[in-house]
Design brief:
Length: about 220
């Protein structure tokens, strides 16, 4: 079934993905009878049209009010030798956006100056960590790993782990489709019920390193 789309593309400020690397919607009667029938037919038609209009007005009419997401920035990294070949690697992160979850993962680099998202980076999945950061909060996250002599450096990938979307329904109560889009690709999808006149917020959890939150478009429409 084809539904007329009511689309709103929400946008926000640019996000810089932080990376930090380091080393290691009858006639008289008949006339009367005929007139009566015509009036009845007209009444039925009008009632039908009215019913259709009422049905249409009861459909949800959603639109995006706002979006919220953290904006992490790497402030510094460091490492400390513990015992044997084991090291503690630390990244200090500052959240310059809205409060929410921020994730990080350590990567090994062929060379200290390599891009932590480039071909010469080697993620260490077991070091992925997610923490909640208030707006403006700054704190350190540490992981422990053995040193790798075959690599020339290390770094941290840091990304927003969520986007919250605020949607207002100016129509009737019903199901609403919310789609987070990266071009033509659906990144995340939800179909909540929103009351008439209500404004509600919905959180989407994902690795928003690619696409970044500022690159994600938001589509909303009635699912009725």
């Amino acid at each position: 079934m084809k539904i007329e789309r009511r689309t709103v593309v929400g946008s926000a400020g640019t996000v810089l993905l932080s990376t930090f690397a380091g080393c290691l919607g009858n006639d008289n009667e008949e006339q009367i009878t005929n007139n009566s029938n015509e009036n009845d037919d007209e009444q039925l038609t009008n009632d039908g049209e009215q019913s259709s209009d009422n049905k249409k007005s009861e459909l949800p009419a959603p639109h995006v009010v706002n979006r919220y997401y953290p904006e992490p920035r790497a402030a510094s990294i460091s490492n400390h030798h513990q015992t044997g070949n084991t090291y503690e690697f630390t990244v200090e992160i500052e959240n310059t956006g809205d409060g929410g979850d921020i994730s990080t993962m350590m990567v090994w680099l062929d060379n200290p100056n390599d891009n932590v998202y480039g071909p010469n980076s080697h993620p260490v999945p077991e070091t992925e960590r997610t923490r909640y950061f208030s707006s403006g909060e700054r704190k350190k996250i540490s992981v422990t790993s053995e040193g790798r002599d075959e690599y020339g450096g290390y770094g941290f990938r840091i990304w927003s782990a969520e986007i919250s979307v605020e949607v207002k329904n100016e129509g009737g109560r019903g199901a609403v489709e919310i789609r987070l889009m990266d071009g033509d690709n659906v990144v995340k999808y939800a179909e909540p019920i929103i009351e008439a006149g209500a404004t509600e917020s919905f959180k989407f959890d994902r690795n928003f390193s690619d696409p970044a939150p500022s690159e994600v478009s938001i589509e909303v429409e009635s699912a009725e």
